[in-house]
Amino acid sequence: MTVSEADVRSQRIRATVHAYLDAVAAGVAADIAALYADDATLEDPAGSEPHVGRAAIAEFYNGVEGTENNTELLTLRISGSTAAFHFRVVTKAGGQTYEIEPIDVMTFDEDGRITSMRAVWAPEDVRRR
């Protein structure tokens, strides 16, 4: 792989991570799921039963519909076709405000679509504001 190919891959991954955080903030499940490859897997949290395929992933993200979310990227590292990023999500739902700072590890295909996602967090990481 030439340096320019690596740079293009990194730019695609970076763009997808930012699009993912924007879509989570917007709270539209279909927009989030559209960033995934057709046969992608999602574990949220890591170690839980994987959601396999874009339809199952869209169903998982239905939980963000109707919530008010704000996302902030704190750290992003990209190596080859993998990205690990630490971010903050503040969610307002049902009169409550919650904050969490998960670390997501994603892999990507050549087009920058997410092929796998593992969200590293535990219930005790969720804070009420």
List keywords for this structure.
eight-stranded mixed β-sheet, alpha+beta, 29% helix, Nuclear Transport Factor 2, Chain: A, 129 residues
Question: Would you summarize the structure shown here?
Answer:
This protein has 129 residues and is α+β, with helices and mostly antiparallel strands.
**What is the CATH domain class?**
Alpha Beta
Oligomerization status of the protein chains: single chain
Number of domains as seen in the coordinates: 1
The appropriate CATH architecture is: Roll
Q: Kindly, what is the distance between the CA atoms of the first and last residues, rounded to a whole number of angstroms?
A: 47 Å
DSSP strand (E) fraction?
35-45%
Major β-sheet, in short? 8 strands, mixed
Structure characterization notes:
With 129 residues, the chain is of the alpha+beta class. The chain has a single domain, classed as Nuclear Transport Factor 2, Chain: A (Roll). Helices cover 29% and strands 42% of the residues. The protein is built from 3 helices and 8 strands. It has helices at 3-26, 29-33, 54-61, and strands at residues 36-43, 51-52, 68-79, 82-93, 96-100, 103-108, 114-120, 127-128. Strands 1, 2, 3, 4, 5, 6, 7 and 8 form an 8-stranded mixed β-sheet that branches. A hairpin with a 2-residue loop joins strand 3 and strand 4. It is globular. It starts with a helix and ends with a strand. The relative contact order is 0.20. The model has no long low-confidence stretch (mean pLDDT 96). This is Nuclear transport factor 2 family protein. It comes from Rhodococcus sacchari.
